[in-house]
Amino acid sequence: MPDRVPSVLRVALPLPLPRLFDYLPPRGVAASAALVGRRVRVGFGSKVLVGIVAGIDAPDPAAGTLREADAVLDATALFDAELDASLRWAAGYWQRALGDVFATALPGPLRHGEPLPDTARAVWRLTEAGATATPALRAGTRPRALAERLRAGAQDEDALAAWSPQWRTPLRSLARRGLVERLWTTQPVPGTPRTPPPVLGAAQRRAVDAVCARLGEFAPLLLDGVTGSGKTEVYLAAIEACLAQGRQALVLVPEIGLTPQALRRYGERLPVPVHALHSGLSEGERARAWTAMARGEARVLIGTRSAVFTPLPQAGLIVIDEEHDASYKQQDGFRYHARDLALVRGKTLGVPVLLGSATPSLETLHHAMGGRYAWLRLSERAGEAIAPQVHVLDVRAQPLVDGLSRPLRAAIAACLARGEQALVFRNRRGFAPVLLCHDCGWHADCERCDSAMTLHGRHTLLCHHCGARRRVPPACPQCDSLGLVPQGAGTERLEQALAAEFPDVPLVRVDRETTQHRDALEKHFAALGDGAGILVGTQMLAKGHDLPRLTLVAIASIDDGLFSADFRAGERLAQLLIQVAGRAGRAALRGAVWLQTHHPDHPLLRTLLTGGGYHAFAAEALAERRAAGFPPFAHLCLLRAEATGQAELDAFLAEAFALAENAFGVTRHAPMPAPMPRRAGRLRAQMLLSSPQRGALQALLRELFPRLHALRERKKVRWSLDVDPVDLY
Ligand SMILES: Nc1ncnc2c1ncn2[C@@H]1O[C@H](COP(=O)(O)OP(=O)(O)OP(=O)(O)O)[C@@H](O)[C@H]1O
Ligand SMILES: [Zn+2]
Fold this sequence. Notes:
Elements: E1 8-12, E2 21-23, E3 39-44, E4 47-57, E5 71-72, H1 81-93, H2 98-105, H3 108-111, E6 121-126, H4 128-133, H5 142-151, E7 155-156, H6 157-163, H7 168-176, E8 180-185, H8 202-213, E9 219-225, H9 231-244, E10 248-252, H10 260-269, E11 274-277, H11 283-294, E12 300-303, E13 315-320, H12 338-349, E14 352-357, H13 362-369, E15 374-378, E16 389-394, H14 406-417, E17 421-426, E18 434-437, E19 454-456, E20 460-462, E21 469-471, E22 484-487, H15 491-501, E23 507-510, H16 520-528, E24 533-537, E25 550-557, H17 569-581, E26 592-597, H18 603-610, H19 613-628, E27 635-643, H20 646-659, E28 667-668, E29 672-679, E30 682-691, H21 694-710, E31 718-723
Parallel strand pairs: 9-14, 9-15, 10-12, 10-13, 11-12, 13-14, 16-26, 17-24, 17-25, 23-24, 25-26
Antiparallel strand pairs: 1-2, 1-4, 3-4, 3-5, 6-7, 6-8, 18-22, 19-20, 20-21, 27-30, 27-31, 28-30, 29-30
Bound molecules: adenosine-5'-triphosphate (ATP) and zinc ion.
The site of adenosine-5'-triphosphate has 20 residues, from helix 9.
């Protein structure tokens, strides 16, 4: 065999090891560059894995006999040149094995080696007989309404489902009479009846024009618009312009932003079917949406974090709604940030990336202030709505019963009496955050975590960190007193108190427990009706919802967030407060916000609520970050480690610390316990690296990552590198 001829496949396997694996091509297949980007099935130890050919190379003379790959699974590469380049960049930047990154980017079925799915969609249209018969169908019936709808054009099943959850019944009735027929197509279906857009305000118009002027080139743009200012209308208009140029659009939304309500809004306004990609879908549905975009059949995709990995062969625009949202950062495994990856893709693709928020992240705001991002502002609410009035309620000298003061109860009562709706916000689920012994001060802590257990109902203690559950003890385990009292109020307790006080209005609780399914939120809103009513809930209520009768937002407490040690805690809290306050008075009715606090003079609250609002807060916070050397003025990487024994943990971090010794331009901070030093029975510690130069930090990480993998201690320690961590926990 002539040596040094490229004849082995360098395969990226879905393993956390930072290297590629060499295989001979399957018998009868030549190792050519054309194989790069295709999936192969290979034996690995006793297992069979699906990997992606990352390159073709000459065999390493030092390597022993190589195994043959079992099969090549694709006729062409799965990732186009841009996506391939972006994924390689992501693997390098967030320090993750390429095989793992490739696997994350693929929908489940493709990752497991299945063929690309069939992407044809079922479409219904009137038959000739149906077109003739429609006017004769009984008026006011559902079959008639459906036939009228189909007269305007054929509709795919998603559009019908968005029109009515019970669409199948009238459809069957028409089908039985031969009035409708189904066909399968991969083409977008034209002629879907659409809701006309509102007339845009001047600021909205300017923003749309600014985006449209940049179509066809990379441009990062921040759409900085107060809550209810009509940012979504700007996205929609920009997407329409992008579609009119024959290009595709990708819209990213936060985890909980993608309600059926939001999907319907896009679906009814855009002239093409809107595809969705999120964790509520089956793996097969996700693979179909991914493939339809890859083939150019789908033109618009809305999805959560992982939708950022969708191929965009005819990209025109990327929109990131609520760009500040923490759910864009993956918090385990491959810790990528979807917003940042979207910006990199936008640059490679040469398309604008539109970041929207009422409370932009300090990083993004800093870029806008420095002129690196175009800064589009919407400072007023759209249509008739005006900004809500804010009242800060000093509760230091007020008796709180079940977490609610008398003036707040009165404000809620007045709101309900006007036939309007109130939202009572508390970012703690459960009945009470702490169970305390009134006599000796004992409180119920988790046995496996350094954390208090939350009381749920009357009898259950639950750890929100490890899921541990136990029954409330009959008496204090320390002093036998019977005086165990719940301290503070979670959503469950607020719900009970409000139900007792206002028994005649619908009351809905929205938190993780009551909102398991994706359409649960919509059911909750439906149960609220459109008269007087109360919503109680956590931050799930803070985002994106538009309830026209909602005029009062009551913030029961955010005091526990005011004194957190995390450098981003203030930013998070400010964003949450502004977002939840932004639910009040979004339509014709004026809104009000009431905030109960024991710290009315806290600088964050003063600046945010009575001073200059979010931008004044952000200016102060940026000055503090600059002084303290925190992002965006420094770049961080957190090495997190956990182990069952303290000695292994310390030894691992000591070695890591030593490895980082000679890094140029990077500060290595001494290892220390994590803010929660014990979780689920494991000890946790961390080491922070920081640098004012992204490049210097990246250079260190490139060296450090493989060396950490080679450490002797690594086997007993679970560790991860978190580049640009969103929190230090
Ligand atoms: N130009 C307009 N004229 C009249 N109504 C409008 C206009 N633009 C938007 N609206 C309406 O104002 C409301 C708020 O708009 P939208 O949901 O787009 O705001 P947003 O900025 O995305 O809000 P948030 O960030 O708070 O979720 C919606 O009911 C929308 O239909
Ligand atoms: Zn626990």
